User: What shape does this take?
Amino acid sequence: MTVAEIQLAILNGTFTDRELRDINSTIVNILKADRKKKVAAAKSGLHVGMEVKFGHQRGKIIKINRTKCVVDTGGIRGRWNVPMTMCEAV
Assistant: This one.
C-alpha cells in the first residue's frame, strides 16, 4: 500500500482500533529510533570545552547530558540547555 492508500483506508474506517494503535506504535518506534541515531551522531562530534553555535547564539559546552548540552554563552545570557542536534562546531 502507498501512503495515500493507507490514509484513505484510515479515513474510510477500514482499520479496527487495534490495527490503528499498532500502526501508530510502529510509526512512533521508527521516529524514536531515527531521533536516537541523530542524537548519537551529534554526540560523537561534541566534547566539553568545544565552541559551538546554536541559532544566533555562540558559546562553550560546559556539560554533555543524555540528549542536550549545557552551553555557556557568557555574560548576562548565561547557560542554555541545547539539543545536541542544534549544536554546530565553530
Observations:
- Helices lie at 3-12, 17-44.
- Residues 10 and 20 are 8 Å apart (CA to CA).
- The chain has two domains: 3-44, 51-89.
